[in-house]
Amino acid sequence: MKLWTAALDLLFPPKCPFCRKVLDAPQDPVCPACQSSLPWLTGQYALRPVEFTNGCLSPLAYRDSVRQAVHRYKFSGVRAYARPFGVLMAQCVRDNLSQPFDAVTWVPLSRRRLQQRGYDQAKLLARTVAAELSLPLQATLVKYRDTPAQSSLDSAAARQANTRGVYRLLPGGPSLKGQNFLLADDVVTSGATLSACAGLLLQNGAQTVFCVTFAQARPGPDVQNPNIPERNAGKFKE
Ligand SMILES: [Zn+2]
User: Fold this and answer.
1) 71 CA to middle of ligand 1, Å?
2) Tell me: the pLDDT tens digits for 164-220?
3) Which of 128-132, 165-169, 182-186, 234-238 has the lowest average pLDDT?
4) pLDDT for 79-102, tens place per residue?
5) Each residue of 32-74: pLDDT tens digit?
6) What is the dotted CATH code of the domain comprising 40-231?
């Protein structure tokens, strides 16, 4: 397997997901230049309150090259970004939380969207996070119908209404009783999707839910051009 990976690396050398230059260290999730220039979120800025959860951690602000990289991951089929993105998410969890988790789960795609895209981007992130943190990956939820993309809706109320009744518990899935979940998704904006999913997990016996996303966006007009989180802190109330 290692030989195969090495051969693939020779043929398709891993690139930095943000500037797309070939990485000198193929195992690194990001090149040194981007490491020092990306909009990292640290301390309180990495944590966003989300209803029904103990919070949502994200290593990066959703803007500039981070936003472009997420678009390539979600809409241009670059599924290989699941590894570097997931590694950065796991690092963020390790850096900020000491509490133990029982399993990693994710915000699922609808079947139709999955067929269109060919992969569930949040599931691939969750899989990397689970592997990095040595936790089991557990499918818990299904998305029953398609809704307009959360990013197309401006108000928190519209985002909340958009998620109502959309997710359900996976039929025949394992018991959630007493489980402490890490719930993964790509981007958090208002947190409406994550809180809908977390609420379902708690209703069905889960003990706690902590969320982790790759990037954190500001809801409303700031989504298109978010300010630096420090300057914007406190403006948005969940
Ligand atoms: Zn780079």
Assistant:
1) 16
2) 778 999 998 889 999 999 999 999 999 999 999 999 999 999 999 999 999 999 765
3) 234-238
4) 999 999 999 999 999 999 988 999
5) 999 999 999 998 899 999 999 999 999 999 999 999 999 999 9
6) 3.40.50.2020
3-state secondary structure 8-71: HHHHCCCECCCCCCECCCCCCCCCHHHHHHCCECCHHHHEECCCCCCCEECCEECCHHHHHHHH
Cβ-count burial 50-61 (b if 16+ within 10 Å, e if not): bebbbbbbbbbb
Question: Which residues on adjacent β-strands are paired with residue 184?
Answer: 106, 212
Report strand pairing: 60-61 vs 47-48: unpaired
With tokens 């401006």, the residue in question is 154
SS3 184: strand
Whole-number Å distance, alpha carbon 65 to ligand 1 midpoint, is 9
DSSP string computed for 58-104:
-SEESSHHHHHHHHHHHHS--GGGHHHHHHHHHHHHHHH-----SEE
DSSP designation for 235: T
The CA 20 to ligand 1 mean position distance, Å, reads 6
Q: 61 C-alpha vs ligand 1 centroid, how far in Å?
A: 16
Name the residue ranges covered by the structural domains of the chain: 1-37, 40-231
Sequence-separated contacts (24+) of 10-16 with Cβ below 8 Å: 14/80
